Amino acid sequence: MIGMRARGKGATRLLLGAALALAMLAPAGARAQGIFFWKKKKPEPPPPPAAAAPAAQAPPVTPPNALTPTQQADKDRLIKQAREKGLNRDTTEANAEERAELFKMVLIIDGSDTEARIGFDQAQKDIDAAHARDAASQKSKEDANAAKRDKLRAAETAIDAGDLKTAGMMVDDVLSTSPDDPRALSLKATIADKRKAAATRKKLLIFGAIALAVAVAGVLLVIQLLRAKREHDKQRKADAAARKAILKVVDGVGRGKLIALDKDVFRIGAAMGNKPEEQNDLVLSDSENVISRYHCSIIKKDGGFWLVDSSQNGTSLNDQKLDRGEDHNLDDGDEFVLADVSRIKFLFT
């Protein structure tokens, strides 16, 4: 019985070894799926039938650099725009940049386009030329501004020096190119104010000179007149001193008497005193005793003769009664009356 068990075990080992050998000989896919020869795999379902595809057309064979209709249309449009911008004689940098951009877009579409290549290069040259012109223009503007500043500084210096003519020429030169320059306009206004002030000062100087001349002339004239008057008075005094005067009794008491005025103090009265100071040079006495003892005097001074009344009954000169004690100048032909009883005429000889 033990021998039968041993034979049974040996048979089992043989079967396992055979199965392992078959498994090793089976395909790898079958091994991966755990398929053994004694286990049958279920068949996979068949795939669904494919839909019938339409008959496909082969794409057209495009030669090298060939463009699609859309690309060709874009290219033609861009080239047309670039040509138009090249014909409008606009030499600005903006125009050149727009042309360069248009030709660049053409070259992106068709890099072999000769016109686009030439146009792009020319646009770049035009850009460079525009840059050069802008730089030259900028330098010219800077130079002009520097020259303008120099002229305005020189004008300010001329104004300070009082040379308004030179300053005005410089400011006008600046305004001819920059009519709205605020600094130049301010200087022009300053020059105008200074010219106005100078004109006013000139007028004042002229008027002052005229007034001074008139004043000097007036002073000289006054001096001349005073000198002439002094000379005249001097001459008159000299003439008066040289002339002789007389008294003539023309009416009344003492009528017909004629006496020379040969003293500096000539006394007229009714009596003769014992003392020299009481003596009269012309004695006229009336019966009624109206002529005072020392009635009046004629005083010779400064080349003239002066009548002084000292009476009780009064003295009249040319029919005008005199105040007692006042002196009155006698002119040739004057007549004076003593107490209304004796008329005497004063005469130069």
Q: Can you tell me about this structure?
A:
The chain is of the alpha+beta class and 349 residues long. It has seven helices and eleven strands. It has helices at 2-25, 28-32, 69-87, 93-109, 114-161, 164-177, 182-242, and strands spanning 245-252, 258-260, 265-269, 282-283, 296-301, 304-309, 315-317, 320-321, 327-329, 335-338, 342-348. The strands form two sheets. A six-stranded antiparallel sheet has the order 2-1-11-10-7-8, with no helix packed on it. Helix 3 (69-87) runs antiparallel to helix 4 and helix 4 (93-109) packs antiparallel against helix 5. The radius of gyration is 76 Å and the shape is rod-shaped. The chain starts with a helix and ends with a strand.
- List the total number of helices: 7
Shape: rod-shaped
> Tally of extended strands?
11
The run of helices and strands is: HHHHHHHEEEEEEEEEEE
Poorly predicted residue ranges:
1-43, 48-64
Percent helix, as a range, is 40-55%
Query: What's the alpha carbon Rg, rounded to whole Å?
Result: 76 Å
Q: Report, as a whole number of angstroms, the end-to-end distance.
A: 229 Å
Structural class per helix/strand content?
A: alpha+beta
Strand content: 5-15%
What composes the largest sheet? 6 strands, antiparallel
Trace the largest sheet across and list its strands.
2-1-11-10-7-8
Mean pLDDT: 82
